[in-house]
Specification:
The structure is a single chain. This protein is α+β, with helices and mostly antiparallel strands and 180 residues long. The chain has seven helices and four strands. Strand 1, helix 2 (34-52) and strand 2 form a beta-alpha-beta unit.
Length: 180
Amino acid sequence: STFFLELQETSTILSKATPRSLVILDELGRGTSTHDGVAIAYATLQHVITKLKCFCLFVTHYPLLADLEGRFPGQVANYHMAFLEHPSHEGEAGAEVTFLHRVTRGAAQNSYGLNVARLANIPASIIKQAAKDASELKSSIVERGGLKAAAPALTMFKELVRTAPQDANSLTELQDRLNT
């Protein structure tokens, strides 16, 4: 699978990197379930920060990883691609976004996947349906208490990661702890 290949490549990077390396990891963990993916990405990035201590460009869609900036001030900084939001045209789903091809300080506050789908020429009917489904999903999360309802689980996850061994080979142990 592509996920297995991604992890093999990550293993090679982690075993060969030195403090003088430039490590680039793009969307690590996206090929599996969200909780496994977040755990793998978080533990890997933490290993790069604390053990390898090299410069790393780590691209992710997991908002939880942005918290590492607070845990490692001066070592971790969040950036996102700058954009401008425009009101949507009649019949289009969501605001239209113009990506500015400029890196900006801070974590992105929203997802713009529907805009990327529009740029990729996905049919408008599919984008419209996806926007409707995304809105319903967002509403259902808000109705169930949103992130406030998830806060205890997120706090527990952060604590598990904080107390997890720093060794990247200990991902299985972290996953076992998450499943208990």
